[in-house]
Amino acid sequence: MMPLTMARRGETVTIQGITGKDEVRQHLVELGFLVNGEITVVNRIGGNFILQVKDGRVALDRSMANRIMI
Predict the structure, then answer these.
(1) How far apart are CA 19 and CA 45, in angstroms?
(2) d(CA 14, CA 35)
(3) What is the pLDDT of residues 13-68, one digit of tens each?
(4) Looking at the domain 4-69, which fold is it?
């Protein structure tokens, strides 16, 4: 496993796990980041990530993206 920050633009990856405190993990789940779910890295801008999650797009900063393991 490696953090989402290692994924390249345009790459579709499967979430293997989410780390961090319970509140952080719950917040990410509410945004649609589920274990075994697929996400696509749409763009990386200044350390921030634009991600395709299900039918929507979500922006995460590097620290939050580091908590998502692929």
Answers:
(1) 23
(2) 8
(3) 999 999 999 999 999 999 999 999 999 999 999 889 999 999 999 999 999 999 99
(4) SH3 type barrels. (2.30.30)
Closest by CA to 67, choosing from 38, 12, 29, 10, is 29
Amino acid at 33: F
The predicted pLDDT at position 49 comes to 97
Specify the residue for token string 């920050």: 5
The H or E element containing residue 60 is strand 56-60
Among 17, 7, 1, 16, which residue's Cα sits nearest to residue 62?
7
Domain boundaries, the chain: 4-69
